[in-house]
Amino acid sequence: MKYLSISGQDTLLVAMECIKKNHQRCVLVTNDSGRLEGVISQGDIASALLRGMTPYVPVEKVMNPSFLYLMKDDMAQAYAIFKKYQISLLPVLDNKYMVKSVITLQDVFSYLEERNNG
Fold first, then answer.
1. C-alpha distances in angstroms, 100 versus 1, 68, 97, 113?
2. What CA–CA distances, in Å, run from 90 to 15, 54, 118?
3. What is the pLDDT of residues 3-15, one digit of tens each?
4. Which of 11, 33, 75 is nearest to 90 (CA)?
5. Do the Cβ atoms of 60 and 40 come closer than 8 Å?
6. Residue 2 pLDDT
7. Residue 46 has pLDDT above 90, yes or no
8. Continuous segment of H or E residues that includes residue 15
9. Which H, E and C letters describe 26-62, residue by residue?
10. 83 contacts: CB under 8 Å, gap ≥ 6
11. What phi and psi values does residue 33 have, to the nearest 5 degrees?
């Protein structure tokens, strides 16, 4: 989960640094207990900066509180979601919206390779 999740109190600058390190074009925003609160993407950050916000604005002011997720690790279902919505990561949550794991685009590619070579 390193570089895939930040706090809503973190700044846009921190989000940009995490996105640069995680290579996923977005980062999950969780509260102090680990509950997923939203997602912030490179596009969200660019839009905020173009609207005159500074890189030091808290992520919670810019994040998108609507997000796609799964309730279990299901690579076939994840693949369908990645293909339809062209996203780069998909959180797997429990019934309290706590992040259990994250499926990345690389995970989906690995799944497709295994399926095609198996």
1. 10, 14, 9, 24
2. 17, 28, 24
3. 999 999 999 999 9
4. 75
5. no
6. 82
7. yes
8. helix 12-22
9. EEEEECCCCEEEEEEEHHHHHHHHHCCCCCCCEHHHC
10. none
11. -90, 0
Dist CA 15 CA 4 (whole Å): 9
25 in Cβ contact with 19 (< 8 Å) = yes
- The tens digit of pLDDT for each residue in 51-105 reads 999 999 999 999 999 999 999 999 999 999 999 999 999 999 999 999 999 999 9
Rounded distance between C-alpha atoms, residue 77 and residue 54, angstroms:
38
Q: H-helix or E-strand containing 80?
A: helix 75-85
The predicted model scores a pTM of 0.91
Q: How far apart are CA 62 and CA 29, in angstroms?
A: 11
8: which DSSP letter?
A: T
Q: What is the pLDDT of residue 24?
A: 93
Instruction: Give the residues across from 29 on adjacent strands.
Output: 6, 38
